[in-house]
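2024-03-11 09:14:02 INFO receiving multi-entity request
2024-03-11 09:14:02 INFO entity count = two
2024-03-11 09:14:03 INFO echoing inputs for audit
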Amino acid sequence: MANKKVDLSIDFLGKRFLNPFMLSSSPVSNSAEILAQAFEAGWGGVVYKTLGADNIKIIHPSPRMSGYNYHAKRLVGLQNVEQITDRTLKDNLADILYLKKHYPKHVVAASLMGFSNDEWAYLAKAAEDNGADMLELNFSCPHMAVEGSGSKVGQAFHLLEKFTATVKKVTTLPIIAKLTPNITDMTEPALYAKKGGADAISAINTVAGISGIGLDDWVPRPNIFGIGARSGYSGPAVKPIGLRFIADMAECRELGLPLSGIGGIETWIDALEYLLVGASTIQVTTGIIHYGHRIVEDMIEGLSDYMVSKGISRVQDLVGKALPNIKETDHFDLGRQGISSYDLDRCIGCGQCYLVCKNTGGQALEWDAEKRRPSLIEEKCLSCMICSFVCPVEGLITFKEMPKDWKRRDTDLMDPELVKQVKLAPFAAKE
Amino acid sequence: MSIADNFKEMEKGFDFTQALAEADRCLLCYDAPCSKGCPAETEPGTFIRKLRFHNITGAIRTIKENNILGGACGVLCPTEKLCEKECAATGIGEPIKIGKIQRFLVEHSWDLGFQVFDKPPARKEQVAVVGSGPSGLSCAAELARAGFGVTVFDEHPEPGGVLRYGVIPIRFDNSFLERELEDLKVLGVKFVCNQRIEGRGGAEKLLEKGFRAVFLGPGLWEAHRLLPEAKEQPGVYSSVKYLEALRKGRFAELEKDFKGKTVAVIGGGSVAMDCVRSAARLGASDVYLIYRRSYVQMPAEEDERIEALEEGIHFLLLNQPLEYLTDGSKGLAGVKLVRTRLGKPDASGRRKPLAVEGSEWVLDVNLVIEAIGNRAVEDSPEWYPGLEVSEKKLIKTADQTGKTAHPAIFAGGDIVRGPGLVVEAVQDGKLAARAIMETLSNEEES
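2024-03-11 09:21:47 INFO inference complete, emitting structure
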């Protein structure tokens, strides 16, 4: 494919990124040793693992993580209780110097977390003095063992604003505020961050969750010697939550800040979706934990080929492209209705469509037990499309729009006689 | 390392992860077609769904309550011709490996220490089961679960019949069998081995001893021979005698016979595959499989055929053995063959092999194993003179019930249907047990 025709580079906060694919601040960005490999593999940048000021000793719980499986599929989600870095600030800064020396074209943002106002200022200055390209303020880790830190700050908006302002005062570097999804509306803390001086928002950090409980010990996983905790859940299952929050902030005119999208990204398609709802860069951890650095090769090649096929030459031209199509649900054209449509020549006779329609849908399918084939009673089809989700043959069941004058049949009554016995007065609005 | 070590390892089944991954592939069909493909009414559609939803003990219960030999069937069933043949997933790829999942679940029950059965409240009626092969065990379990006192008689030193003495241990070994027999012991079934029910009216005599009913499932233990009229030929084994020697662990003796020798096995079924594969493991230098039709007509399962080929067995297809050649006093020198071609389908539906005139040739071999099928023991009809017996000395029963001409004697398995599958015998035993219960309950009432 003609990869040369497209340019995956993108400007973000005044820095040129080779591509929009970054490692997020997390277990995968804890040292130069690991990040050198990532840059060699093709990642465009990193948010270096959250630095601390060494005033409180950080010891990670053991074990730190637990995988969440779906049937035989392993690691559809990840539960982790890892804290900010447990390395000394000096060691981390030396590693940042190393990365900037050996990989000058790669962007290194430093994630920070202070446990007091002064610590925030101290860390920001230290990161700037040692070559960090930008700062990301960690207001969002949901499982910090230090009281009143992490997502606790991200949920206390005035505090978030104050710490951002503190950092702003001591640095000239661009500032990203990393926000927690463990709130209702993210535009609110984002606006506080902006007021404090943030230049961009990154989201989402992990979702606070409990993904598994031991059946013999009744301890949530990971089991830290008899204790479990609400902790950070990540991976493919959180992508819809991340996309929604990024879209919310991208649409918020008052905010108007560039965004870095995080949450459940493994493929170029996931990354592209984040771009389409308004992110300019994307960040990955769980995908790398699951598959290693190599997945960036497929992100680069996949996105490049996609852009060639769409005749789009700059990543920037994809940012926010889906936003005009995201509306409130009252915008739907309810006059247009359709049904599911079956290409029965390809049917293998598993009958799952019949089962789900019978148990959860419109009772719109009949079943020929002899031939093992469904047949659709069109006027009963709700177009829920559940049948198409369970059908193992790709594309066998599709949505088909019906003519304007087509009418769906009302749901059958079990006993029409009972209508006469219903006790119901007509609704009268009380002013 | 001794020759016996070559037979120690039974081929591995699925582990938990593999079983779960395979269950994940299952389409969980509505009105599952696989559940209609089992002669013993096993419901893979149900036990795979249970596994998928981590109701693992429930899955095991589904298998074992229906088939006391669920593990054995999981290993030995020609699933590609039964449940897996009906699998809808074939339409988008490979059928689900149902047999392997079934075997896993039964083996997993042992790892879990999960007991499906409790000893039920005892009833006073005693029933005798003759033969501890699949039909006998199945019948015994079904009766014991209903509380009947059951005693199983077998002429062999240990119970299991064909499962113990008719299959090579790399396919199905004694420790697997013992664990599955454990369930019968939990149910209170008594085994009396080294006890042949023979002599005139042997079966009827059991009734005189106080057993209220007798189930006959003695199986077929006499081998069909290539040259029925000829006298015993040195260097020629029947599969029955050969496999029995193997399963009784007479490795030293067998090794002496087989090591470094050229061996030919006649036949194309599962037993023939067992014979060639085990002969190679006994140290034979070359092992030929002689079959009068072609590859696709072989009754053996595809897996077994491929394994045999990969283990270096020479398949000599479209060749019909005619006679044995001797080298004076010492033993076998060769087998005389004639090439065949396939004509029109015969009664079995397979194309009939026709000898190619003038194409006789001699294959130099030191040993031959005839694996061309089993038949009823010659004098077996005398054990039960009150029953109706066919020309092939098979017992005649009323369909599906195992009822014979004698009201208190029932029969099933190969002695009724001729050479069949383990799973078919299981079903025979189960249905006969139900008929026995019905008969005894009716007697109770009247």
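2024-03-11 09:21:48 INFO post-check: Chain A has a mean pLDDT of 96.
2024-03-11 09:21:48 INFO post-check: Chain A touches chain B at residues 71-73, 348-352, 354-355, 367, 369, 372, 392-393 (CB under 8 Å).
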